[in-house]
Amino acid sequence: MKVLILENGRLFQKILRDLLIELDCTVSCVRTGEEGLELIANTGDETRYDLIIASQHIFDNSGSAFIEYCKNSELQTPVILLTSEPNETLLKNARSAGIKDIFPKTNITYLKSSIRYYIQGEQKFDIQGGRVLYVEDSASVAHIVTKYLKKLNLEITHFATAEEAFHAFTDNEYDLLITDVMLEGTMDGLSLVRMIRASNTHSAKIPILAMTGHDEAQMRIDLLHAGINDYVTKPPIEEELAARVNNLIINKRLADQVREQQRALFNIAMTDQLTTCHNRHSLSDYAPKYIKDALRYNYPLSVMILDLDRFKNVNDAFGHTTGDIVLSEVGKILMSSCRQGDIVSRIGGEEFLVLLPHCTIYDAMHKGENIRSMIELAKPSGLRVTASIGVASLIKQHGEDFDKLYKAADSAVYNSKKNGRNQVSADLQSIEDSELQHASGG
Fold first, then answer.
1. Is residue 268 included in any domain, yes or no?
2. What's the farthest any 2 CA atoms get from each other in the chain?
3. Which of 203, 207, 236, 321 could form a disulfide with 241 if both were Cys (CB 3.0 to 4.6 A apart)?
């Protein structure tokens, strides 16, 4: 960015110059309006200034011509006014001269922050590559607006009817919807906004800019209630449209970044980083919900606990790196062998738990045997690894207490260990309850 400083105080001029150079700006400095006018007049369009920062003394006799030139110039370079004594007359003169912003000189820290934000904000104001869904039934208006939007390096998909636009919206991802309010066809712009906001997808939060030829208060209220983010009147002013489109798309991208960060943090909080299985925290969140659903809808729920046999020997003999490889491979086996809806968790060093909804005790025993065999045959890191497995099903004695169901499966694991390891054992109460239900026709 090329900046012209008009400041008669050498110290303050140096402060501004050092700040702007730090912000990668090319800086020129003058002390009077005449010097500034001469410098601008001798500067070609290819090297024109992007910003002028001027002290309030430009409103004295030496700066009147400079102010007049800035106001009437086709280049329309924005001017920031610096003042140590703001007053009503100065503010009035600044507004009539087309001054863009007024910053106080009395607070250097605030001034530096304001200029830094202004310049860096200008540099980072980039929406290139954004996708816009545009709805407009007037060919002439659509031509003008599309031309404006293409100057912002946006990808435009234009439809003349709301029905076509809504079908495109459901099948594609967009960064912004711009819609006229009055449209031909059975659906107008207001109905389109309401349908999009009512859709049960993450795309329902797309920013919406409404365009209307009738700037009526009630129409604006209805549009805002329907869920638009902003509106402009037709025909739109190019700079105003660009600013509103920029703001809406940038805010959407910031919201998308926050959502991605939240998702990443959630995955970190709920996932065991070594095996990518759920962790104990995640299990404590899911288990009560699974139990309540099983009791409410009267379907079987089983739990499988798997403990790797003599895993300490693996770590001692081959190191923890090899041990981690073994755990990771076992996690992959469990996740690949389970159904969608099953919850595979690593709950201890070498201990895993699997929640199995819609799974009887006998189905759980069969699944456990398959997993036991797969682990034994897998030989992760070339080692023969086996697992002791215990299974249990939710019965009336457990109520809604997951801890009781867990202890039943854990006792079954203990039985597998006691009886020689590398086998599957079932909780006897779960089997008895299943047989009673079968005998009674339940």
1. no
2. 106
3. 236
